[in-house]
Specification:
The complex is a heterodimer. By secondary structure, chain A is of the alpha/beta class. Helices cover about 35% and strands about 25% of the residues of chain A. In chain B, helix 10 packs across helix 12. The chains are: A alpha/beta, B mainly alpha.
């Protein structure tokens, strides 16, 4: 029996000039219905690639899915054809909020035109009913003066306004599974808070399950029940977000958390220091890890349960039971 | 928007002044005596001397230039040295046939070139794309005169499918009254219900039309493809797909509208190019347009005619680019 949303042994690679490069290796990732799962990782870790893999929108033929299964409500998405993904999943059951509000809206169409297209495609509403729905959606995302907003082009709006519109468009689809790819990354801190609050409310209201992608550990703790840490395409730690953050096991997670400056007295730490050469077949974190042993260079650690629901992919951390 | 168009117009005027200046002085350094041409091959030296004074060629160059510019502003391009008729009139007679050709090639560029580019971008690196790229690079690099000759060889001489040249069959020209309303043969025959003339004209325009049209189709297809490839990588395209919008909307509306800037520029440029390209094609197909006209003008060193056609071509370029700029300005980001 699979979970509502579950990834099993997913491996994704990209063709490059030097041959195929693996960018994503996820052994297991589960999300319960109605739950928010936070995925944290630095840029380049493969978060967006994961999102596009779920939607079946990886660039072809550059990307290849080597193996794996992505289950949504009892169906393996990787077995679906592009046609099936289009007719049954994209926009209908799964939708996505992209990370950059500046580039996610089409610059040559008004907000109204872009909303109307999606409303027509997913709700099959036309004319007056369509406009009515668009106004309603803008009110849901708390954009004042909705009528005038519809006439505007994306470049006439602020980042926060755009992100609200992007959320409105994504919600218009009425999908049950939402992928939010760093929805607050390019926003001011004050606006971030508003957007997060909004998303949280909307998730409750629309009863959506969510994969919340972030490069900020702090956000995940607030928004998500469970969380995972992605490092160079590998899920290195997974579990209830409370535990993952308060009692981080993986040396990478620990560095990530300690990198958040707490007060002036604390010296800034840098998590991004390479201290030895990469281990080709070993742990992906080997080159930066201060705890690494010889075994870490020889083989890759798999996710192992350490404390109930908390799992970690690290030989050293797995040995140190609390 | 108004200010934008005015600024572009002003720029156009400057370009036109430059063109008039250059063509005037270039034609004056051609080693030929216009006065001798004017009076014909058997004229006496006295007649030539009189013609020199009549044509104002004895005056200093700058005086001639200002007189020329003054005439130009009144739409007077002077008289042909060979026929002694006003150049303006001769242009008007020859223009419609050329415009028909240019029109056909532009229609082809827009309605064949753009879809070809879109499909090619959508199916990047698949066989449709390879074929379309082979076609575009091929037709852009083939010289027009060669294409014209090969088409004549194949479709006229070997297959007997299409006529070799001219705008109408000789028997139709001799036996039927040719309608003249606008000067555009196909349009005039259609509105007057002369379907026999219309189909004959259509038959005749096929080969020169293909010869002229191949280059713009290839160029536009190639430019549309590369513009779209860039756009298809944009976030808003991936986003549109993730909302479950159909590939038809994503490609032909979301992506294509974003490429309108580069596409319309290249269409405008290719129209200008086509206009110049008619010079060769018309000579090959004995097409009675501007191209044939300038070819004989060059051979006869009829410099007022050469200048007239040059100025007309430059004028078309300026207008076409203005139109392209206005289309680009419909992009809301430019307008702001």
């Amino acid at each position: 029996m699979t979970e509502y949303f579950e990834i099993k042994n997913l491996a994704v690679g990209f063709h490059t000039f030097e041959g195929v490069r693996d960018v994503l290796r996820i052994e297991s990732l589960r999300i319960k219905r109605g739950e928010t799962y936070g995925l944290v990782g630095e840029s380049g870790a493969g978060k967006t690639v994961l999102a596009l893999t779920i939607l079946g929108l990886l660039p072809k033929p550059a990307a290849i899915v080597h193996s794996g299964e992505i289950w949504l409500d009892g169906q393996d998405l990787l077995k679906k054809t592009d046609r099936q993904m289009y007719t049954q999943y994209r926009g209908k059951r799964i939708t996505m909020i992209f990370q950059d509000p500046m580039s996610t809206l089409n610059p040559v169409f008004t907000v109204g035109q872009q909303l109307a297209r999606v409303i027509e495609a997913q709700q099959h509403l036309k004319g007056q009913a369509n406009t009515q729905k668009a106004l309603e959606m803008l009110e849901i995302v708390k954009l004042p003066d909705a009528g005038r907003m519809l006439e505007k082009y994306p470049h006439e709006l602020s980042g926060g306004q755009r992100q609200r519109i992007i959320i409105a468009i994504a919600l218009t689809c009425g999908a049950e599974f939402l992928i939010a790819d760093e929805p607050t990354r390019n926003l001011d801190v004050t606006i971030q808070a508003g957007i997060l609050k909004l998303m949280d409310e909307l998730q409750q209201e629309f009863k959506m399950s969510m994969l919340f992608i972030a490069n900020n550990v702090g956000l995940v703790n607030v928004v998500c029940k469970n969380a995972g840490i992605l490092y160079r395409g590998k899920l290195v730690e997974d579990g209830p977000s409370e535990k993952v953050i308060r009692r981080a096991r993986h040396p990478y997670t620990q560095t990530l958390i300690s990198a958040i400056p707490r007060d002036k007295s604390e010296a800034l730490k840098f998590a991004n220091t390479v201290i030895k050469p990469d281990a080709e077949h070993g742990c992906p974190y080997y080159a930066r890890c201060t705890l690494a042993e010889d075994a870490c260079a020889a083989s890759e650690p798999m996710l192992e349960a350490v404390d109930g629901a908390q799992k970690v992919a690290c030989f050293v951390a797995a040995r140190r039971q609390p | 928007m108004k200010k934008f168009i005015l600024r572009r117009l002003l720029l156009g005027v400057i370009v036109m002044l430059g063109v008039a200046f250059i063509t005037f002085f270039l034609t004056r350094v051609i080693p030929s005596d216009p006065a001798a041409k004017w009076v014909g091959p058997r004229a006496t030296p006295e007649q030539i001397a009189k013609a020199t004074i009549d044509l104002g060629l004895d005056q200093p160059l700058y005086v001639q230039f200002f007189k020329y510019m003054g005439d130009l502003l009144q739409g007077n391009l002077g008289a042909s040295l060979r026929t002694r008729r006003p150049i303006m009139l001769e242009l008007q007679e020859n223009l419609p046939a050329t415009i028909e050709l240019v029109f056909i090639s532009t229609i082809a560029a827009v309605f064949l070139g753009i879809p070809l580019g879109v499909i090619s971008a959508r199916r990047k690196d698949q066989w449709v794309d390879h074929l379309s790229r082979l076609f575009s690079v091929g037709v852009v690099s083939l010289p027009t005169f060669w294409v014209g000759l090969i088409l004549q060889l194949l479709f006229f001489r070997t297959l007997h499918l299409f006529p070799m040249g001219g705008q109408l069959s000789t028997e139709i020209k001799l036996t039927m009254e040719i309608p003249k309303i606008t000067g555009f043969l196909m349009f005039d025959s259609l509105v007057t219900g002369n379907f026999r003339i219309f189909t004959d004209a259509l038959w005749h325009i096929v080969l020169p039309g293909i010869t002229i049209g191949l280059y713009p189709v290839g160029l536009v297809a190639r430019m549309t493809r590369s513009a779209l490839l860039e756009i298809l990588n944009e976030d808003y395209i991936t986003a549109a797909r993730s909302y479950g919008l159909s590939e038809r909307i994503v490609l032909w509306s979301y992506a294509l509208k974003n490429s309108i800037g580069s596409t319309s520029t290249v269409v405008a440029l290719s129209i200008g190019y086509t206009l110049v390209n008619t010079f060769l094609t018309e000579s090959i197909f004995s097409w009675p347009g501007i191209g044939s006209y300038i070819a004989s003008a060059v051979i006869g060193l009829d410099y007022p005619a050469i200048m007239g056609v040059t100025i007309f071509s430059a004028f078309s370029y300026v207008i076409l680019n203005l139109v392209a700029d206005v289309i680009i300005a419909m992009d809301p980001r430019v307008r702001a």
